[in-house]
């Protein structure tokens, strides 16, 4: 039986179906996140293949700095979510990222706490700014926290040097 409006000659678009499914699932999780704890809405495209988890505090200034940082490395579509939402495991499963980034030790610990199956190396043991195999199909990257980098030059340098590793993704595409 064919869905209404779909002609027999039209093949299914698997990539489009995947994007729709992912967008739908993440949208449901996002509204639960905002209702439950009052977290801001996630940013970016959950089908981008790149998920960043931002540690608290994440106020407007921190979010703006992260947006500008992503634009600077050419990854403005990357999906940004937050630690301590209680929905991180579901978000990661829905997005199925090729790259997972923990911004700050709190985000690294929150990712490790979900006890994701088949993890090869936990985020808490990763060196900031160095790619590592989180799972067989997902590269991990840990950066220092962003919030302290907003007001301290040394923290800004540490964050930015680690964050610049994301440029590798743009060069390889």
The helix tally amounts to 6
Q: If strands are numbered along the chain, what order do they take across the biggest sheet?
A: 2-1-3-5-4
The domain count comes to 1
Low-confidence stretches: none
Q: What does this molecule look like?
A:
The chain is of the alpha/beta class. The chain has one domain (14-171): Uracil-DNA Glycosylase, subunit E. Helix content is 40%, strand content 12%. The chain contains six helices and five strands, in the order H-E-H-E-H-E-H-E-E-H-H. It has helices at residues 14-37, 60-72, 88-95, 105-113, 153-163, 167-171; strands spanning 50-54, 79-82, 99-103, 132-133, 139-143. Helix 1 runs antiparallel to helix 3. The radius of gyration is 17 Å and the shape is globular. The N and C termini lie far apart (39 Å). The mean pLDDT is 85.
Main attributes?
173 residues; five-stranded mixed β-sheet; Uracil-DNA Glycosylase, subunit E; 40% helix; alpha/beta
Secondary structure elements and pairings:
Layout: H1 14-37, E1 50-54, H2 60-72, E2 79-82, H3 88-95, E3 99-103, H4 105-113, E4 132-133, E5 139-143, H5 153-163, H6 167-171
Parallel strand pairs: 1-2, 1-3, 3-5
Antiparallel strand pairs: 4-5
Concise summary:
With 173 residues, the protein is an alpha/beta fold.
């Amino acid at each position: 039986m064919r869905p209404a409006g779909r002609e027999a000659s039209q093949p299914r678009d698997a990539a489009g179906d995947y994007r729709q499914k992912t967008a739908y699932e993440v949208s449901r999780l996002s509204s639960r996140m905002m209702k439950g704890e009052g977290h801001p809405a996630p940013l970016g495209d959950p089908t981008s293949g790149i998920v960043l988890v931002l540690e608290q505090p994440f106020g407007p200034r921190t979010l703006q700095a992260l947006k500008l940082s992503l634009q600077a490395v050419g990854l403005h579509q990357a999906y940004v979510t937050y630690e301590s939402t209680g929905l991180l495991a579901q978000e990661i499963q829905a997005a199925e990222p090729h790259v997972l980034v923990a911004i700050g030790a709190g985000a690294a610990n929150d990712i490790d706490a979900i006890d994701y199956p088949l993890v090869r190396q936990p985020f808490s043991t990763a060196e900031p700014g160095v790619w590592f195999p989180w799972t067989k199909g997902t590269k991990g990257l840990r950066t220092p926290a962003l919030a302290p980098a907003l007001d301290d030059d040394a923290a800004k340098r540490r964050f930015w040097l680690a964050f610049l590793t994301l440029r590798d993704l743009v060069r390889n595409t």
